[in-house]
Design a protein that fits this description.
Number of helices: 1
Radius of gyration: 28 Å
Oligomer: single chain
Strand order of the largest sheet: 4-3-2-1-5
Number of domains: 1
Largest sheet: 5 strands, antiparallel
Distance between the termini: 93 Å
CATH architecture: Roll
CATH topology: SH3 type barrels
Length: 116
């Protein structure tokens, strides 16, 4: 019986390596790759900042971009109150000044249908 048990343990080493490889691949596709994608998106948002953009910092502070530097962003958080932040502190852009807001559809009298 002892020699038979020794033969079976040799075959399970390949199975262990395959499971380890599958675990590493799963970790890459489920954890590492999505995290890299999010980091690239945040970096592109931080690079595209411009005066007039309404932003939210990582701490949750809302403000309007007044000035942009290579490393810093000056936000107006209240009328006449300006704070300087590192670019990395900007989490997202709420309203971009460079993109026009979508116009609300207007209805004309010919679009309205009278039910009677």
């Amino acid at each position: 019986m002892v020699p038979l048990a020794a033969n079976q343990s040799g075959g399970s080493a390949y199975g262990m390596w395959i499971l380890l490889l599958l675990f590493v691949l799963a970790a890459y596709f489920l954890i590492i790759r999505p995290q890299q994608r999010r980091r690239r998106e945040v970096e592109s948002v931080q690079r595209s900042l411009g005066p007039g953009d309404e932003v939210v910092t990582v701490a949750g502070l809302y403000g309007t971009v007044v000035d942009v530097d290579d490393k810093t962003v000056t936000l107006e958080v209240a009328p006449g109150i300006n704070n300087k932040y590192a670019r990395q502190a900007i989490a997202q852009v709420v309203n971009s000044a460079s993109k026009p807001e979508p116009a609300e559809p207007t209805t004309s009298s010919s679009d309205v249908v009278d039910p009677d």
